[in-house]
Design brief:
Structural class: alpha/beta
Order of helices and strands: EHEEHHHEHEHHEEHEHEEHEHEHHH
Number of helices: 14
Strand order of the largest sheet: 3-2-1-4-5-6-7
Helix content: 40-55%
Largest sheet: 7 strands, parallel
Distance between the termini: 7 Å
Number of strands: 12
Radius of gyration: 21 Å
């Protein structure tokens, strides 16, 4: 089967698709991956086509503030999305796959699939598109509205409204003029049922597969390996969350770790933290990033922003998360973890202090048995293989 995988966003949006591409290729399928540039994901050995956009550069320039995104909507966001919509559709028309598998940001996927008369599969890395009464759409509101939760999923339709003119240009380019192109034939969610209980009102076309992981083990540098071997390490990193004051945030984290006698492995990411020289020491190893799946099994706890990739990696490692949510779906995952006894109460990034972190690290010990049980359950999952089986059944 000839499969095109198309995704847009940061590293967390690209890595699951790369894992799926490798597993599907191993199963004998022909794969092409349409992705943004410089995501940081390992794409070695994959047939890759560029969408001609760089989300990493965007985050570096303006951070992750919703206000900054709104202010730069016409000059930065809209042109970037137009490029994504046109180039992903062009990639589909050039490759002519048997099936198109796409991230929700690829709003043009339905149009390209319609023009090629092929099935389209939606990949929801977070549950924000498929309506349910069980919870509100991730990234919308923090309250459970009961039967009205379904209404929060209508917000996903705003994307098509915002880029209607660009989608019209895509329609003309691919030759798809039906008013309502066919909806996805299936939805894949690379989410562990350990973290998200499957709602009863999802139909059989929605597949909660478990996370999509790479088969090859990740490795760490000799410096990181030596630091971890000395023990009593807590990991802290906020990925691409370049918001607020990274110096002040790092200072609170370092002081919080030292208050409980922990050694800190600090990942600065794309500006989430910046450790001042005055707080440096042999008990704090500062690096830009680390491979989570290799590092997190060796630490006592993980202080992070609560993105689904890090949540999966920490829980699968049997490591208690200290969620510090910033934006989007991160508060949703923080609530999921806490409600299931897998983490202390999340700390909003504006309330992160040495004192709040110290209390959370103390409370983390109570969560350890539940996290270890969750890790044993996740060890039985093969989300990537399950996703390939779903695609094969559709092909």
């Amino acid at each position: 089967m000839r499969i095109l995988l198309a995704t847009a966003g940061s590293r967390g949006d690209v890595e699951p698709f790369a894992a799926l591409a490798r597993r599907a290729a191993r199963a004998g399928h022909e794969l092409r991956l349409a992705v943004p540039d410089n995501s940081g994901a390992d794409l070695t050995g994959l047939d890759v086509v560029s969408l001609g956009v760089d989300y990493t550069a965007l985050v570096t320039q303006q951070g992750v503030s919703a206000g900054a995104a709104m202010r730069s909507y016409r000059t930065v966001v809209k042109p970037l999305m137009r490029q994504v919509l046109l180039e992903s559709a062009r990639a589909a028309m050039d490759y002519r796959p048997d099936i198109l598998v796409a991230h929700p940001k690829i709003l043009s996927a339905r149009l390209a699939a319609d023009a090629l008369a092929i099935p389209h599969v939606l990949v929801e890395i977070v549950p924000a598109m498929t309506p349910t009464r069980a919870f509100p759409a991730a990234g919308t509101i923090p309250w459970d509205l009961g039967p009205f939760n379904r209404s929060t999923f209508r917000l996903s339709s705003l994307g098509e409204a915002m880029f209607r003119a660009d989608l019209s240009d895509v329609s003309r380019m691919v030759g798809s003029f039906r008013r309502r192109p066919a909806p996805p034939v299936a939805t894949l969610m690379p989410i562990s049922p350990v973290l998200l209980r499957r709602p009863e009102d999802w139909d059989d076309s929605v597949h909660l597969t478990g996370p999509w992981r790479h088969d090859a083990p990740e490795t760490v540098s000799a410096e990181v390996s030596r630091f971890l071997a000395e023990g009593d390490v807590v990991y802290a990193g906020f990925g691409s969350m370049a918001a607020g004051d990274p110096l002040a945030r790092a200072g609170e984290v370092v002081r919080g770790l030292r208050s409980v006698g922990a050694r800190g492995l600090i990942a600065t990411g794309l500006g989430g933290m910046q450790v001042p020289p005055s707080l440096a020491g042999e008990d704090m190893l500062v690096t830009s990033s680390v491979p989570h799946e290799a590092v997190l099994p060796q630490v006592q706890a993980a202080v992070h922003h609560g993105g689904i990739g890090t949540v999966h990696a920490a829980t699968a490692a049997g490591t208690v998360s200290i969620p510090v949510p910033f934006i989007a779906d991160q508060p949703f995952w923080g609530r999921c973890l806490h409600e299931q006894g897998l983490s202390p109460q999340p700390i909003h990034q504006r309330r992160l202090t040495a004192e709040t972190l110290t209390r959370a690290l103390g409370a983390a010990q109570e969560c350890r048995p539940a996290v270890e049980a969750a890790a044993r359950s996740m060890a039985q999952e093969d989300g990537t293989g399950t996703a390939v089986q779903v695609l094969e059944a559709l092909g």
